[in-house]
Amino acid sequence: MKVGLLLAAASAAIANPLTTPRALPNAPDEYSPANVTCPATKPSIRSAASLSTNETDWLEARHREVLSPMRDLLKRMNITGFDASAYINLVSNTSNVPNIGIAVSGGGYRAMLNGAGALKAFDSRTDNSTAVGHLGGLLQSATYVSALSGGGWLVGSVFLNNFTTIAELQASEQVWDLRNSILEGPDHKHLQLLHTASYWDDIVDAVHSKRDKGFNTSLTDYWGRALSYQFINASEGGPAYTFSSIALMDNFKKAQIPLPILVADGRNPGELLVGSNSTVYEFNPWEFGSPDPAIYGFAPMEYLGSDFSNGQVGANGSCVRGFDNAGFVMGTSSSLFNQFILRLNSTSIPDTLKSVIASILEAIGEANNDIAAYKNPFAGYSHTNASISSLSELNVVDGGEDGQNIPLHPLTQPNRHVDVIFAIDSSADVNSWPNGKSLVRTYERSLNSSGVGNGTTFPSIPDTNTFINLGLNKRPTFFGCNPRNLTGPAPLVVYIPNAPYSHMSNTSTFDLSYSDEDRDAMILNGYNVATQANSTQDAQWAACVGCAILSRSADRTGTTLPSVCSDCFQSYCWNGTLDDREPGEYEPTLQLRTPNSPRPIVPYKPAGPLMGRECFGVLPCSRKSGQPRS
Ligand SMILES: *[C@@H]1O[C@H](CO)[C@@H](O)[C@H](O)[C@H]1NC(C)=O
Ligand SMILES: *[C@@H]1O[C@H](CO)[C@@H](O)[C@H](O)[C@H]1NC(C)=O
Ligand SMILES: *[C@@H]1O[C@H](CO)[C@@H](O)[C@H](O)[C@H]1NC(C)=O
Ligand SMILES: *[C@@H]1O[C@H](CO)[C@@H](O)[C@H](O)[C@H]1NC(C)=O
Ligand SMILES: *[C@@H]1O[C@H](CO)[C@@H](O)[C@H](O)[C@H]1NC(C)=O
Ligand SMILES: *[C@@H]1O[C@H](CO)[C@@H](O)[C@H](O)[C@H]1NC(C)=O
Ligand SMILES: *[C@@H]1O[C@H](CO)[C@@H](O)[C@H](O)[C@H]1NC(C)=O
Ligand SMILES: *[C@@H]1O[C@H](CO)[C@@H](O)[C@H](O)[C@H]1NC(C)=O
Ligand SMILES: *[C@@H]1O[C@H](CO)[C@@H](O)[C@H](O)[C@H]1NC(C)=O
Ligand SMILES: *[C@@H]1O[C@H](CO)[C@@H](O)[C@H](O)[C@H]1NC(C)=O
Ligand SMILES: *[C@@H]1O[C@H](CO)[C@@H](O)[C@H](O)[C@H]1NC(C)=O
Ligand SMILES: *[C@@H]1O[C@H](CO)[C@@H](O)[C@H](O)[C@H]1NC(C)=O
């Protein structure tokens, strides 16, 4: 681009940073939560026994909105012998319309970019995505999109910027510029508008404005503010953008776009977080809460930070708005990464700022430097267990810390009735590739159905050695194909693991900056992974995705799917075979021959502060010991 154009674009952005409207900057006092007059019906906590009326009302509209994109999608998928129009007409006014969820895993920028490739492939607005063998329209047909950690940066970027496209994010002058590390701050494409020091000064000021109102803050507040500069297209990273404002967007209200859900875990003082008993929280545009027995309640998102006690805002309690800052929510879901801030010491920022960081650390202690502090909305709430309801503050951490690095939890809740989940896995299990471990964790948790699983069912998942030995981590695999082999209703899971098609996409979780070329190569690889190189690896792939979408619905309506579907299930369904022998080193090479020469695998960066921690799906681990590699 010419320098003159660049200047024009940049000054236009300065003059009017709100040229592209998006979610709303509707917080009362920028980053700082503020007391407001309570609404006529005071905010309250509701039991998790059913879905919110917000969601059930919205679903009614969404189920109508998906009919036309789904009809078109299924027609394009060329499922020989299947009349898509007739089928959609048949089920259109019933609960038999296929209910589709998409789940995007964590794993830092690697997960954001690989996930972006999948979303780009699923989005009918992407150029050529509705061509033969592509999957465009799946996003428009989906009801739910869940994400956590790095995946949450992706889903946050899309929904907070008015459901923008991946191509627009790539082309943007304002967001998704990953060339500068987040520690340095954005420079708006060559125009150093913001110095690193003033960037951090602004961040510190914002966080202090919250602290000064009496709210506990942590590294996650700083992290969330920093993330916002990269992901929210507004000046200073849109300090007034709230997550709940997504619910006020026209296209969301009309149910023209899917429901975004971010996931985080609970880890209160003294708790050890393990997958089999973790408390999993969700953030959706209306609510924050958890259906797990430990909480079993939901609080209105817009009024987080209010004085809830016993499930109500009492007569003398104040109503607070602006706590649900959009960057803070994204930062909470990715709090494991807030330790990147500790690397500020190795940059050239002023010492004053370094000492701010040092004092935060002193206040919270190393062991808790990954938490986000939420004023406890479930204090005294009757359904919440006593040890949590007695706390004044909830500690919430990265959604991947319990090892369930794919955000399946909200999509496996029985009252959501999801039929099929497209699970995009960018975990770093072995050499920064996934090996199914996240699915194993979710499966194990579901086995404790009367406890933490609380009635959820999940398909049988083999051990991680089997994943590698059978190649289930190299190409898409379906789990739970046969509903008769499940202990209760559960979705079919279409597992889509990150794999090297056109690019070695196992980049280190510690890569804090990407050139535009590398960023785009990661996204294109993700597109190729999801589409199996536009069905060039298997000409039936698009049809098989259609069969997966239809599977549960056809079962309910007693419809026999055509033989192409039987073939698909034969080739893509895991059939129960196990091979748990210790596999050799997993070092896959590029699956596609492309004109671009492959980038060599980059060895892991040396140990930083992150390396002292346990090994989670979001961080690279060595294969045997489960300890971080050095
Ligand atoms: C959001 O995007 C839609 C579709 O592109 C557009 O029609 C609408 O005007 C946008 N909304 C805002 C608030 O910009
Ligand atoms: C809100 O009002 C309460 C008194 O009702 C006061 O204690 C509190 O400090 C106020 N909070 C803020 C953020 O202004
Ligand atoms: C969600 O439902 C509650 C209770 O019915 C209502 O007060 C609130 O306005 C709804 N939220 C939105 C964003 O529509
Ligand atoms: C649809 O599938 C049939 C056979 O399965 C094939 O002959 C035909 O070329 C396909 N059409 C398209 C547009 O791919
Ligand atoms: C579905 O409902 C709409 C209106 O609610 C109606 O026009 C249509 O005929 C119904 N379709 C079927 C197949 O019942
Ligand atoms: C879309 O397809 C056309 C025709 O095959 C091609 O010229 C164009 O480059 C493609 N666009 C993208 C984004 O791949
Ligand atoms: C979860 O299990 C671990 C290990 O069994 C235990 O130490 C921890 O206290 C449990 N946490 C909760 C919240 O129950
Ligand atoms: C960073 O530098 C400050 C001041 O130079 C020092 O007090 C602090 O301990 C350092 N923090 C870390 C995490 O190394
Ligand atoms: C889920 O947990 C709640 C709260 O402990 C309980 O009331 C409910 O019966 C449980 N549901 C199932 C299906 O186990
Ligand atoms: C698949 O399609 C996309 C978009 O049209 C294109 O950019 C990409 O190169 C194609 N992949 C292969 C392997 O041809
Ligand atoms: C099950 O899958 C394995 C490979 O994953 C294959 O070798 C075996 O033949 C399959 N069994 C049946 C009954 O299809
Ligand atoms: C069927 O269920 C059994 C028992 O839960 C399980 O061991 C087996 O792996 C399941 N088969 C498939 C294909 O999921």
Automatic annotation (TrEMBL):
Protein name according to UniProt: Lysophospholipase
SMART domains cross-referenced by the UniProt entry: PLAc
Domain of life: Eukaryota
Domain PLA2c: 37-579
Organism: Aspergillus pseudoustus
EC number: 3.1.1.5
Reported function: Catalyzes the release of fatty acids from lysophospholipids.
Keywords noted in UniProt: Glycoprotein, Hydrolase, Lipid degradation, Lipid metabolism, Signal
SUPFAM superfamilies: FabD/lysophospholipase-like
Keyword Lipid metabolism appears in the UniProt entry: yes
Similarity section: Belongs to the lysophospholipase family.
One Pfam family per UniProt: PLA2_B
Signal sequence segment: 1-15
Catalytic activity of the protein: a 1-acyl-sn-glycero-3-phosphocholine + H2O = sn-glycerol 3-phosphocholine + a fatty acid + H(+)
PANTHER family: CYTOSOLIC PHOSPHOLIPASE A2, LYSOPHOSPHOLIPASE 1-RELATED
Top class in the EC scheme: hydrolase
